[in-house]
Amino acid sequence: MMKQGIPEQIKLFKFATKALIFSQVYQVRDFPRISALASNQDAAVNVALNFSLEEGRIPCIKGEIKLNLALTCQRCLDEVSVHLEPKFQLAFLKNEQQGEALSANFETILNTDEEFSTIEFITDEVLISVPMTPMHKHECASYQDTQPINKQKRENPFAILQQLKNKE
Ligand SMILES: [Zn+2]
Known about the structure:
The chain is an alpha+beta fold. It has five helices and eight strands; from the N terminus they run E-H-E-H-E-E-E-E-E-E-H-H-H. The strands form two sheets. Strands 2, 3, 4, 5, 6 and 7 form a six-stranded mixed β-sheet that branches. InterPro entries: YceD, YceD_bac. Keywords: Ribonucleoprotein, Ribosomal protein, Ribosome biogenesis.
């Protein structure tokens, strides 16, 4: 099967039945909820999605995403580059009983939507892997240095994310 770009909408059962394989290189700016957290808008987001039908009727997506995000270090407030490589193997079930025969390698999701947004789907998988408090690996600020930051209660970039989620 030749690899092709990922369509804007995932048609779950249709793609799974055909065992389609997609890959595409996006930019951080293509994912509004991710780009709200990061300052490297032009950076590449490599996405590969393999669709399959398991047990003859359960649509599954095996995927791999690779990206670097320039986030704000929560200790020194400078930029910190975080490499993320979320991998997932999802089975979309109509009901929990459907999953009983399925390999334990699959993470199961109860889902009745045949069609959903590719960008939103990828966004959710990336955001799960983003550290809640990104920090440099080295001691970028001393304990004393971090005190005023805590007192100021600087707005956490993830508060924005929460707001976006609440609007949905
Ligand atoms: Zn730092």
